[in-house]
Amino acid sequence: MDGKIKQWFDDLSSEKEQLALKVRDIVLKADPSIKEDIKWGSLTFIANEKIGWIFHYPQKEYINLGFFRATELSDPKKLLEGTGKGLRHVKIRSEKEIDVKQFTAWVKEAIEVNKKSSK
User: How far is 23 from 61, CA to CA, in rounded Å?
Assistant: First the structure.
């Protein structure tokens, strides 16, 4: 973990830090090509193109796992929130809300969506 990313985690409350570390681990395990960086105040995940992010609002009790082209992802449980053109996110308030299978599926699907659009 580079210094910028470590600093981003250090700035979180301990509860948010634990949630964000677990979600980060899921994302990075989903595909070995994923890189990470801090962009727009978020921990951003990149696989050729940006695929998603973890964001937090200091005044809120949750973190967001979001995807840039989420409207192109399957969401059978209707977990993704948002009304933008393509962006969607899921709010995570506790470990119980971390759906490893679904988060992994979204990450893999987001990578495939990016591959298809770059052809």
Answer: 16
Residues in the chain: 119
Query: pLDDT 10s digit of each residue in the chain, 119 long?
Result: 899 999 999 999 999 999 999 999 999 999 999 999 999 899 999 998 899 999 999 899 999 999 999 999 999 999 999 988 999 999 999 999 999 999 999 999 999 998 777 65
Question: What is the distance between the alpha carbons of residues 91 and 97, in angstroms, rounded to a whole number?
Answer: 8
Domain that holds residue 111: 3-117
Q: How many domains does the chain contain in total?
A: 1
What is the CATH classification number for the domain harbouring 67? 3.90.1150.200
